[in-house]
TrEMBL record:
The keyword Ligase does not apply. It comes from Flagellimonas zhangzhouensis. Keywords: DNA-binding, Transcription, Transcription regulation. Coiled coil: none annotated. Gene3D superfamilies: Homeodomain-like (1.10.10.60). One of its GO terms (molecular function) is DNA-binding transcription factor activity. Residues 170-268 form the HTH araC/xylS-type domain. This is Transcriptional regulator, AraC family. PROSITE patterns: HTH_ARAC_FAMILY_1 (PS00041), HTH_ARAC_FAMILY_2 (PS01124). Pfam families: HTH_18 (PF12833).
Length: 275
């Protein structure tokens, strides 16, 4: 995905046109949220197949295999599809991962809350289609949308933990959020959870199909992207702030994960934001 952010409507006509088409399971190189006002979706994700009726929120993280088919219900389908690169919402993307990791599909009550969500989608759609869209405006609108979702359906570790792996992973994310800036090894997190590194890796693989080390590294680099976009700190300062003591090693890790050097990433993001 080249754009930082995009939003579009998926209508009844689109759902009917899709009825006879074959859809393969796939992964995205972007984050995707679907706001369902009318209709339903058949969603295969996390090795489970679920039919979700509107009103609902569905969130699919970058790189997670899934298969989603929008469908009509009572002859209607009205969805907002929001796609964005993780660096666009770098300040909150990991909190979103934590919120949705065990519930890709969230049903919300049909009330004033959902009306506010669709109104925000309309505003973001109007803004992105202006000749010179204000990405700062869109980001604030999207942050408001996330705040409303969390207020109406707050995270509840006890209620959401369907199994011990999910509960352990949730606690791991809380510990990671407090310590990702430190230069500590995986054993630090395993010790905090009273388990071995091997078992922590098993939990992370079961829940996110990634190792604990990959998740820690992703959190660090998510913050690095945030600082590269929103601060004037130099590369060495940013690396040091997230636990990389050597600028060269930080740049090497950043390029391996993103395909760009920190300097090139900063230049590209500033060019996109100021377009």
């Amino acid at each position: 995905m080249e754009q930082l952010f995009n939003i579009f409507k998926f209508t009844t006509e689109d759902a009917i046109a899709l009825e006879d088409k074959h859809i393969e399971a796939h992964v995205h190189d972007f984050e995707e949220m679907i706001i369902g006002a009318k209709g339903k979706i058949s969603h295969f994700i996390d090795f489970e197949d679920e039919t979700v009726y509107a009103p609902f929120i569905s969130f699919v993280t970058r790189g997670k295999p899934h298969l989603l088919r929008p469908q009509t219900h009572n002859g209607e389908c009205d969805l907002w599809v929001i796609r964005f690169r993780s660096e666009f919402m770098s300040e909150v993307i990991f909190k979103m991962y934590g919120y949705f990791h065990n519930r890709a599909n969230v049903t919300l009550p049909t009330n004033e809350c959902f009306g506010r969500l669709t109104a925000l989608c309309e505003m973001m759609h109007d803004e992105i289609n202006r000749p010179s869209p204000g990405l700062v405006v869109i980001k604030q609108l999207y942050m408001t949308l996330l705040t409303i979702i969390n207020h109406e359906n707050p995270t509840n570790i006890e209620a959401d933990a369907a199994n011990s792996a999910s509960e352990t992973y949730t606690h791991f994310l809380h510990i990671l959020e407090e310590n990702y800036r430190r230069n500590v090894k995986i054993s630090f997190y395993a010790d905090k959870l009273f388990m071995s590194e091997r078992n922590l890796n098993i939990v992370c693989q079961e829940v996110m199909q990634q190792s604990a080390g990959e998740i820690i590294e992703t959190r660090k680099l998510t913050e690095a992207k945030n600082l590269l976009i929103n601060s004037n700190k130099n590369i060495a300062e940013i690396g040091f702030e997230i636990g990389y003591n050597e600028k060269a090693y930080f740049s090497k890790v950043f390029k391996r994960k993103t395909g760009q050097t920190p300097t090139a990433f900063r230049r590209e993001m500033k060019a996109l934001i100021t377009e």
